[in-house]
Amino acid sequence: MHLVRLAAVACCALSLACAHAIVRPVVTPSKPAIEALLVLPGFGYGRAGEHEFRSLAPSIAAEGMDLYLPTFVSRAGLDESRERLRRFIRDNRLDRYERVHVFAFIAGGWTFNPLVEADALPNLSTIVYDRSPYQERAPAIALEKLRFLTWLKYGSVVFEVARTAYAPVTAPRVRVGLVVETMPTPFIRRFATSAGRLGPYRFECGAFRQRHDDCTYVAMNHNELYAHFAEVWPEVRSFIRTGHFTPAANRRPPAADVPVGVRQ
After folding, report:
1. From CA 91, how far away is CA 70, in angstroms rounded?
2. 261: alpha, beta or left, given left = phi > 0 and alpha = psi -120 to 50?
């Protein structure tokens, strides 16, 4: 019974779920879009996230953008995940757009960044990253506490993310924004002691080792960001259009010593 409970916790923390790829919105603009939004989900994307993006697709189409949301994370690891993403970009001819914008959830960033550095998407204009001092510890905790159950469900890719240092995008022509989660998921709260042993939580924008043009904080955990992405979309849209989040965006980091579970 204890193993069953742990398996359920692991599924909640690292779910790739059974969500399907979204390719283009249901509602299309009257003229062909010249821009595309490529959303790169990672661990945590499931039915709630799929429903949210399908609901948001008409609004994205109204901005003149086609929405692409591939399921590319592979059990075999990051190399195969990158190859799947490369094929998706090629097969959907994303190079035909004048501009491509990317929103990368955590594992999406770990997968996508080496492709950017290799210039796999030369019309890339904007990347907005989802980052989290809390959730970025989940793969390491799964490796330590739930190794077999995690491998059984997800293969080695979770462990590769845990062992692979973040490789930042350096291309100066690409505008980069950071959306930082300030709340822990139930998984991180469940393993708060293990998470805390990995070092202090650092929320300041510079702690993420990623060049950026703007940075904002959202009072959500990783699961909530998938399920309520529409609440963040106005900030993402503003960054796509102007290179900055809105004046109303929260740019004040929470205190670094806030206990796990305290909402900021």
Report:
1. 12
2. left
| pTM of this prediction exceeds 0.85 | yes
Separation of alpha carbons 139 and 134, rounded Å: 11
Kindly list the structural domains of the chain, giving each domain's residue range(s) and its CATH number in brackets, ordered by start.
Answer: 2-242 (3.40.50.1820)
Return the amino acid letter for 25: P
Residue that has been written with the tokens 């995690």 in this structure: 150
**Neighbouring residues of 112: CB distance < 8 A, sequence distance ≥ 6:** 40, 82, 85, 102, 104, 127
**pLDDT of the chain along its 264 residues, tens only?**
444 444 444 444 454 444 455 655 444 445 678 999 999 999 888 899 999 999 999 999 999 999 999 989 999 999 999 999 999 999 999 999 999 999 999 999 999 999 998 888 999 999 999 999 999 999 999 999 998 888 888 899 999 999 999 999 998 899 999 999 999 999 999 999 999 999 999 999 999 999 999 999 999 999 999 999 999 999 999 999 999 999 999 999 998 655 565 444
* Paired strand residues for 103: 39, 128
